Each structure stands twice: as C-alpha cells, then as structure tokens.
Amino acid sequence: MKLLRLKNRKRKFIFLAVLISSVLIVKILVWDTENNRWLIQDLYYRPSIDAKLTIATPITSISSINDRSLKTPTVINDASKLNQTQVAAVFQPTNIEEIKSLIKFAKTQGKKISMSGARHSMAGQIVSSDSIHLSMLKFDRISYNQTDRTVTVQSGATWKQIQNELGKSDRAVRVMQDSNIFTVGGSIAVNAHGKDPRFGSLIESVNFFKLINPEGEEIKCSRAENPELFRAAIGGMGLFGAIAEVNLKTDINSTYNYTVVHRPSSEMVVFMESQVKRPELEGIEAQMSVDQSNFLEEAQIYYFDRTATNPNLKDDVMGENSIWLRKLVYRTSRNTDWGKQFRWFMQKNVGPTLDPTQLTRNSSMAAPFRTLDLNDPSTTDILQEYFVPISQVDRFLAEYKKIIRSHDIQLINVTVRKVNRDNEALVSYATEDMYAFVAYYKIARDKSGDIQMSAFTQEMMDYLLSIDAKFYLAYRGYYTKDQLYAMYPKLQELFALKRQLDRDEIFSNKWYEEFR
Fold it and tell me: Is 462 exposed, middle or buried (CB count within 10 Å of its CB: 0-12, 13-18, 19+)?
C-alpha cells in the first residue's frame, strides 16, 4: 500500500513537472515571441466592431491637441515596415478647426505636414521627416442621406465603419479597397479600385469632397466646382491638403450567390470577361497558384451574382472568418514551397466549405484581413500591383514568370481584378480597360532585400512600359525617376499644380520629396 502511494506521488510529480515544462516551453517559444503569439492569441481574440485595424507598426506616442511643445518626437512606419521615419510630433484631430489650427501651427514652426490613415501606402506617401504628422483615424463622422442615397464621410472613417452605417438603411459601398480596414482619405489619395466590374476607380463614385488647403481654407471640389483640383487630388497622394469630407454614391446592399471555379491561367481572362458581361454579376476576382510545380498556371475565380433578396441574411463585415486557420496556412506558405502547395490545396478543397454560399454585398467586401498580420524581425511582406491591358495579359504572365524566377523573388500571392478605364483622374493608372495583378512578396528587411527588389522592380517597370501597362504608385518606389515619368507623364502636371497651390510645400511626404 505504501509502495502504491509512492508510485502515485511519483506519477503526480512527473505529470506536474511535464505540465510546468510544457507551459514554460509554450511561453518562451510562442507567447514571448511576438511573431508566434498568434498561435495562442488568435484562438480567442476578436477585435471589437469599432476597432481600426492595421498591420503597420503601432504609433507609440500621440500628443494632445493642446500640447504644441514638440517635446515628443515619434517614429512612424507603414505596413511595409521599411519606411521608419522620425516626425516632430503626432496629433489626432477630431474636427475641422483642429486641422486648421495644426496647419497654422506647422507654418509657425517651419514644419511640413504629413498625414496617414491605416498606413498601408508603402512608398513613403504617409510620412515626411521631422513633420507635424496628422493621424486622421479619429476624424471619422459619417452621415447617410436617405433622400439622395449618398453618404458623407470624414476622411478618417474606415470602409468598415461606412458599411456598418449603410447597412442600417440596406445600402452598400460602391467602390472600396479590399479589405475594409482602410480609410476613405487614404483611398482617395491613391484613387483605389474595387472588384465590382460595373464601376471604375473610386473617383467615379465621388460626388464632391471638401479640402482644407495649405492656407487653412475649406474648398469644395467637384466636377463643377474647382474641377482641376478635383481631378488632381483624387490620386494625388495627399499633396494638396487634408480631405475634410467626401460625398459618395452608394449602391443597393444586394443578396449574392457566391461561386468558386477553377480554370487554367490561359483561360482566366476569357472566363472572367464572359462573366463580366452577365447583368447579374456584381463582383469578380481571381487568385493564382504560386507553388513552383504549378507556378501561375491555375486560377481560382470567385464571383458574386445578384439573386432574390434574403431578409434573414445579415451583414458580416468583421472579416474574421476562420482567422486562426487562415493564418496558419498563410504562414506555412511564406516559408516553403511545400507550404505553397498546401495552401493551394486548402484554398481549392477546404476554403469553399468555410465560406458562405450566399452573402450580402457589404459582406462580400469584407475580406479576412488579420491573416496578413506579421511581426517577423527579419522579413516583411510588400505589395506591388500591375495594370495590364486586356490584350496583353497572356504575354504579361509569360514574361512575369521569367522575371520573377531570374531574380529569385519569393512570390506569396497574386490576386486578379478587372479595372475599367478612368478618364477623370489627372494621373490615371487605368488608361484603358485593364486587369490588375496584385502581387504579395516576401523580402528580407535589410539592404539585400532592397537591392533584390530594386533590380526586380526596375526590370518589371521596363517590361510594363513596353506593353503600355502601369505600376500602382501606392507601393514602394523601387523604380527610377525616368521610369516613373515615362509611365506617368501627367505627374509633371500634377506636381506643377501642387507647387502652384502650395508654394511652401506645407503638405509633403517622402515619395514626393524623392520624385518631384
């Protein structure tokens, strides 16, 4: 009996020792390592409905609007984590008078003004060294007009906030970036596009906006009032002033049937073009395989058909569908080719079982975003986007494969969307009907990564120029100045208007300072 008690005590001791050791190992290898913490945290964490999400490095110090001492210089970075820049101070204005006051203050201090929202532009557009930085996230009032079915929003409002407000009136956003975490001001600055082929770039959905200019004046801009500034500021990288409010067209919050099909990449655009012609289709995009055995050879195409209204169907704009599993698959695909094969298998065979077969328009534009959250100290993920004329897509894909492989670039994801011609924006990336290839790359967070991406991007730019394609200016500018102006000759006109309207160049950013 005594021997049995000793054995039981020994078993309990061993169990306790194993338990404590396991907890310590998990703590050290998972919880204490920021890049691995999600393995535990995302099993239970869900952001609040009002949370403003970003994968950019958090801003550590925000000054009180009433504290103009400039004693707390702060480091700002964007989602690429490659644009770390010290600014004089960061302020979060909540109303127009505070913005005007900060413009006046910046002038008295001889400082530039830089502005940001979710901080996902990656070419330095959100920051200028030693500037007064305005984080616009709390400048976010929204008002829906039942009479004309437009929505008026301040520039710090996110598309998710707008979706939540419009959903109350059974309305939806017409054009927005994917996902819905971005701010309206940021989307205006880059003239974002969406995945509904009925509509063009964001400028098409803007009725008017009010701009606080470098003189602190509030100016209304539309196709009838200050049309030159209207065309320049949408897609103007925030160089003309602070957007006070934007009036946007809305759409019916339709009920959709959601369908996923697979096609060889050689048939992708032909299939997508055939779908675009159907009157019931209100959204379409594709993702391409990126593992080496199937490199850019297959497309998974998602499309949304309007169907009879389902009154029991509710908006789900949180973008939190199976985040832990999605993140596990995504992280695996970043590190090995086997992981990329695994991810493609999961997308084809498991993903369709997780996604609803019917959803609202607002829900269709709320892609799971936290999948991309990353805190790796040695690598980062960056975006590039190429706008390719429809007639050149097959040629582009063949050459794109060669260029990627010749530079040994780590391609993680490619999403494809239809983009209609934009004749309105002064600097337009859609000079004809095109297909956008949104590419996600893993690179080293050091000089070697920059050297590798510079060589790759500059060869890509030369090739894009040869087929009248475009590179999206929202993303890190590895290109040369000559390539930039050859691709976007209207930039000369944009910068000339900028200097005319902002002689002291109060509103500035690193991208402008490099390429003006």
Answer: middle
CATH of the domain at 190: 3.30.465.10
31-67 tens-digit pLDDT: 556 778 888 888 888 888 888 999 999 999 999 999 8
Residue 208: inside a domain: yes
Return the amino acid letter for 326: R
Position 388 in a domain: no
Take residue 62 and report the two structure tokens written for it: 């925000």
Strands (E), 340-464: 358-360, 379-389, 410-419, 434-444
Residue 159 lies in a domain: yes
Q: How many CA atoms lie within 13 A of 504 on its CB side?
A: 14
Integer-rounded Cα radius of gyration of the chain: 24
State the total domains in the chain. 1
Q: Are strands 89-91 and 113-116 parallel, antiparallel or unpaired?
A: unpaired
Residue 213 lies in a domain: yes
Give which of 503, 498, 264, 350 is closest to 511, Cα–Cα. Answer: 498
Check residues 186 and 24 and name the one with the higher pLDDT: 186
Q: Which range marks the domain in which residue 215 is found?
A: 138-252
Q: What's at 84, amino acid-wise?
A: Q
Give per-residue pLDDT as tens, 285-313: 999 999 999 999 999 999 999 999 998 89
What is the model's pTM? 0.94
Tokens of 362: 């607002």
